[in-house]
Specification:
Layout (H helix, E strand, L loop, with lengths): L1 E2 L4 E5 L4 E2 L5 E2 L3 H4 L8 E6 L5 H9 L12 E6 L8 H16 L9 E3 L8 H13 L5 E4 L13 E4 L3 E12 L8 E10 L4 E9 L5 H5 L7 E6 L1 E2 L5 E2 L2 E5 L3
Parallel strand pairs: 6-7
Antiparallel strand pairs: 1-8, 2-3, 2-5, 3-4, 5-6, 8-9, 10-11, 10-13, 11-12, 13-16, 14-15
């Protein structure tokens, strides 16, 4: 098991970073200089826990390389170019790669890091780590089936564990605010996306919690794909107590 990072998923192709949907992220040359040219890596562009929207803003901007300095790191958790090896053997390969990149003390390029994994002893151990992540402001935990192969997209051998649920949704409209939010956006009118690739499923709901004053003045555009956190689904399939988390980077 490992920490579920609250960043932007990024595949290193050997020459560039790509999002889950194949869109490029324009990292500065110094940031990628030590990454391998002959291997594909899977990881997360990450700034800090609870800092998702800032991370998205930096990695989606093409003309502000200075914003990456001392802020963004690439946290690697798998190596798709060695997909036929077991998870444990892939981790051994990554460990050797990062010892070469960063040296035994790990100080050469602190913005390139290997995600720490540990063996999950039992359910109680998982809950203990989940509670620890919660106290630290973390997103949750990822659990991996021993001996599993690398798979693209959703996988039964790699699961995320959180204290809450989340989903993707497409913004269909803006609801006018009232009271202190008069004249700005009071809530986003959304349609839930489900399945691989995110298909609209006809479930509509409003999401106002989590919107800052800045976002209410300039809300995500209609058609934007956002991440929504919620407690559970109602009997009609609507997310209960939805909270805006951020706009998808890819």
């Amino acid at each position: 098991m490992s920490e579920k990072l609250d960043g932007v998923r990024a595949i290193w192709t050997g020459s560039t970073f790509l999002s889950r949907l194949g869109n490029p992220f324009y990292a500065p040359a110094w940031f990628t200089k030590k990454l391998p040219k002959d291997r594909v890596l899977d990881g997360e562009l990450f700034t800090a826990r609870g800092d998702f929207q800032k991370c998205v803003s930096i990695v989606r901007t093409q003309d502000n390389p200075d914003a990456w300095k001392f802020t963004v790191s690439y946290r690697v958790f798998d190596i798709p170019s060695e997909r036929n090896l077991s998870f444990e053997d892939r981790m051994k390969s990554l460990k050797k790669l990062f010892e070469f990149i960063n040296g035994p003390d790990g100080l050469r390029t602190p913005w390139l890091r290997l995600v720490d994994h540990e063996i999950c002893k039992n359910k109680a151990h998982l809950i203990e780590k989940l509670d620890e992540m919660g106290r630290l402001g973390g997103e949750g935990m990822m659990i991996r089936e021993p001996g599993s192969l690398y798979e693209e997209g959703r996988s039964k051998t790699l699961l995320k564990v959180k204290r809450f649920l989340d989903c993707d949704a497409i913004v269909r409209g803006h609801e006018q605010g009232q009271g202190r939010n008069a004249g700005v956006c009071g809530a986003l009118r959304c349609e839930m996306l489900t399945g691989v690739g995110g298909k609209p499923n006809g479930v509509f709901f409003k999401c106002g919690s989590g919107l800052t004053d800045k976002l209410r003045s300039k809300p995500p555009k209609i058609g934007s794909v956002i991440i929504v956190k919620y407690q559970e689904l109602s009997k009609s399939g609507n997310p209960r107590f939805p909270t805006f988390q951020g706009v998808r980077a890819d």
